């Protein structure tokens, strides 16, 4: 991990800290040993005072005694801070402190943190970094899939852990690589049906050309965060597997092409990704999309695309979300197709109600295995989407590859 960003949380370039902000400055509560002289000078110039990490509760109590109002986000604060402020506030109010400036005492204001939204809406530099790191990530994935196909073709025995370790090796060779963005999910056959599966040495399965392989992985680069899932078959898929894969792909395309009015919460779009599965009585048990940080946490709020309709956060220009419908046949196989998308403005011929309409720009460029597609299920528009996407993959990724890696057969790019 890049020590200047922090490495307290596995796979996330952040450090443990609290921050109290007022109109005149801020107090950063963290361990002094984590702050370099260069960072200390920057904090001082920004009017940020460093304080010990374990003094946060006494500071919260002091703020209550001073009679201040404190804005807190319950979704991200721990119970100790909320209860400490409330207890100190209640004690102060019982003492009947004289009214000052029309105030009757300190109050907790519970609202979503403005910091969460500021992180979620990426600026131009963050978006450019995300675009660039996804292309380098694609290069690593090309080398990995070439290696895996060759090894399986030669009859080499490889476990799911072996595959995940080799992917990490290829990623680590890319410039700006810091770490994986989460523990790689490499599930062969029935293990692919376990949504948050993690292969362990000694108990994991063998990767073969007889079963589907689901690989969900990502990386932390200095300029961005990646998260991609591809499902492949290194032999001959069954008709059932092809039908399920194709319906998942149709859902992926449906969400990718969605156009929607501004102020639309993400849950409204969830059905776009499920409708093809619903038509034959299938579904999946997880959300369709989560927010993603830019060189930060791979799961980042407040936005999401999910059947859990309690999240009313509207999708806004600059946000990044995943598009990852799937299907999981218990004890048999799992399918997931995931790209990251950037929310952008769309030029529509009409603007009903005088509002702006939004859509998505793809950040992830890596092929989808065409031999898993049942072409008879795709509409002409869906076939065009697949062909256009693979053309973009070739244009963007192939110039970054050397030698045999530039051959289209190794990118799995074929006309749908």
Would you kindly provide a written description of the structure presented here, covering whatever features stand out?
With 416 residues, the protein is α+β, with helices and mostly antiparallel strands. It folds into two domains: 18-111, 3-Layer(aba) Sandwich (Creatine Amidinohydrolase, Chain A, domain 1), CATH 3.40.350.10; 119-407, Creatine Amidinohydrolase. Helix content is 30%, strand content 19%. It contains nine helices and 21 strands. The protein has helices at residues 37-45, 56-65, 79-94, 114-120, 124-153, 160-172, 239-256, 275-278, 380-397; strands at residues 18-22, 25-29, 48-51, 70-72, 108-110, 158-159, 177-180, 185-188, 206-207, 212-217, 219-221, 224-225, 228-233, 260-261, 289-290, 304-305, 320-323, 326-329, 333-336, 339-346, 357-362. The strands form eight sheets. Strands 14-21-20-17 form a four-stranded antiparallel sheet. A three-stranded mixed sheet has the order 1-2-3. Strand 18 and strand 19 (333-336) form a beta hairpin. Helix 2 (56-65) packs parallel to helix 3 (79-94) and helix 5 (124-153) crosses helix 6.
